[in-house]
Amino acid sequence: MPNPGHSPDTPSPQPDAERRRRALARKWTYLLSGVVVVPLTAEELDRELGEQLDAVCDGIGAGQYDPKVLERVGDRLCALGYIGEPGLRCTLEVLGKGLLALPEFQPVESTAERIVLGLGALAVGFLASNQRAVIEQQESMQLSLFKAVRDAKSNLRESEARFDEVATSSSSGIMIISLDGQLVRANAAIGDILGYLPAELTGTTLFDLVHPDSADVLRDAMRQLLDGTETRIRQSQRLLRKNGETARISLTTSLLRGTDDEPSHLVIVVEDGTELMLLQGELKRQVLHDVLTGLPNRQYFGSNLEAALRRADPEHGVTLLHLDLDAFGMVCNSLGRQAGDRLLVHVAQCLKVVLSREKAMIARFDGDEFGVLLENSATTPDVATIVADINAELAEPTFVDGHGLAVSVSVGVVHRPSPDLDPTELLRAADLALRRAKTRRGQWELYHPDQDAHDREAQALAVSMPGAWEQGEVVAVYRPVARLADGATAGVEALLRWDHPDLGPLDHDRCAALAEQTGLILPLGEWLLRVSSGQAVWWKNVPLIVGLTAHQAADADLTNRVVRVLKETGLRPGQLTIGMSVQALRVPEAAENFGVLADMGVATMLDGFGGGAADLVLLDELPVRSVRLAPSPFATELAAMVHGSGATILVSGVDTEEQAASWHSAGADLASGDLFGTARLPGDLSF
Amino acid sequence: MAQQRDWVPQDVDISVPSMARTYDYILGGGHNFAVDRAVGVQIEQIMPGLRQAARVNRAFLGRAVRFMADQGIRQFLDIGSGIPTVSNVHEVAQSRDPECRIVYVDRDPIAVAHSELMLAGNDRAAIVHADMRDPESILASPEARRLLDFDEPVGLLMLLMLHWVDDESDLPGLLARYGDALAPGSHLAVTHASGDHQGREVTDATEVIRRSRSQDQMNLRTHAEIGALLKGFDLVEPGLVGCGEWRPEGPADISDSPDMNMLVYAAVGVKS
To answer: Ranges for the EAL domain (chain A) (predicted)?
Structure first.
């Protein structure tokens, strides 16, 4: 179509056309700079885009449409900086509208196709270039990553060389240990001290080299370092030489932190001083420390008490705890002195664990008594919490010669004494408070100055129980369980009875409570289960009920014990009903045991069901075969409530025909009580 | 308490994002890894205009360097330089005067490696692998001693940097130590993120970064707190303002969204 103002053969536009192009270039610059990041000033970008716009116009307007020119513009645009999708979108919008309006491309009918194709070519060129740029950027990052790793390794080699230089010239042994105890590096001196070649040490752990008796102390030290309570710990330690001998050495452990300030390794310096020097140090330590537990002794504790009282924070003061193990005599009597010693070491460890966050001095006094001096801070828990924590830690059974012992402590407490108090008097006060606390096991008692020393009571009954059991004073007895429908015997419940020479017979609940306090219940309970299972088989598989205490119910070894007993006695699991109280079942471990026993085919019983919300949840969630109702004025209503669940209902304490009839009509299935027979020795029963 | 440092160098860990690489992603670059992009996408969802804020900050870098160059500064110390992306200090400065000398500093080993590769062949620019909180090792580094003359004014840049330093590191004390090392007439340019204007979004973004377990963690400060950090320097007009409000010259310097202009505060100060 004729166009008098412009000939397509003329590459340079007319002055007006030139002005309109500059205006479009400026608009492009203005809008593009608002969405992209380029290292150019506004003028530089304007100049650059002006040139590109000329190229665009020439590529489209030239006699022959040349897509290559437009693709090069796209490529150039991409190379300006971070243009991306927003930059391309902006460019196409600006040029799409702007080119169509330029005078040189009028009339539009003759140029529209070339403009559309031209912008398409620009986009193609941009896309190819952008893709290449992203790939190049990604490759450069891979290269950087590779370089960073290589640099890090080369730094490592340099620092290792520095380490070797220091370490080889040292006569002290130096070990680098990872936080999980793996030996990372060791110098030649450590090999000399322990009699290994350095190569033999690689891959071993620190604890392979430490005498087993020293391992706990070292673990404690490592924990303190990791907690940040200590920065360097020096200990007299025993390491094992290759030939099996013990090397008594002085060991200094400190923490290495990484550049991120997180603990990364432990460095241990092993000093091979003269035997004499070590002996001196050890002797000095032994004078002030208890050899068994490694804790300070009473003498050391007393001499540091005064200083601690003086330096204590006046706002929070100190708290003195005097602790005594509740059943220590019993442990020693029944399991021997050595077991007692091991229990004491265990208690010392527990105290350290519970008090690890406090500024506390823990000492072993004499026998089974410990002292703790707490320098209180704003975050120190109250006395009740601390004692509860200690007892909770000790309630975890520890295994001594195959006996799971869960002990408790009684505690005498002197809280925030006057700083002027004489240390001797302070210790005496704590001792008095302890004597009072001892009257109730696992308890604590604050010292009251007006209480006198004479309220100390006799040793608790529980302490003599293991001996009594040994002597045959504690026996298994059986109480018949009858069917309410017809009064026929439906089984027996196995119970403990202690025929005490002075106090007369102590019933099952009393025996179980006493044994529960000292941890004796674990072996005693297994014994009851074993003899009664054997008895039930002897009685031609009469159904047997055995109730468990809270400790037994939560015992991690419970299912093993039951399996063992069933295997040894030949009792079928379905003939055995194991009862756990609703209180005991609130502990997750007990509920888990309950489920496992049910899976094994053992009949499970919810004992002491009181109808509270929590009890109903247990009834709903656990595989309950039977329920024994707690004595309650509303017991008949409870029976109705349970009846719908399908569980067999047991009641106890049924002494008269009237009671039996009333229970029967309430929906109870089985009952025990005087009406059906008291608990008796097996010889007095027959089936 | 003097902590012992591990002699094993910090691991090159690309399982956690780096904010330098995430920044590059937000700018539209490809110098990043998948973990960085994942965090970038999450933050962009919280703050859809984030790319604008990043662009505006990058534009401020150019204005600040050119401003300093116009005041006669010919040597620059860029601490927390990150991944060299588009429009770097040495490019801006050396386009003004090829004699300009630049020392970059970053603590991220990958950023350092990348800078070394990029600066190979440029004998007037170098990178130091160091932490901002250790001024002495930066100022005494071989690169700084070779390229910078501390008897002459220096242009110190800490852009999108100070908010990675927590209050426990005694930031005022650190800035004072840098200030003490600089000759009178030295300039300081700072940009610092703040929650003053988009409190909710900025807090959410900070949480995204926290959860990402990046080594870089955000410490938001108010206008007054950032101003107090700069008290050793006389701020040039217009003082401490939203990044887009600091002497804008064109559409590249500001965003259409006022919030994105204010997300980051900017200032240039002179040591008297």
So the answer is: 458-687
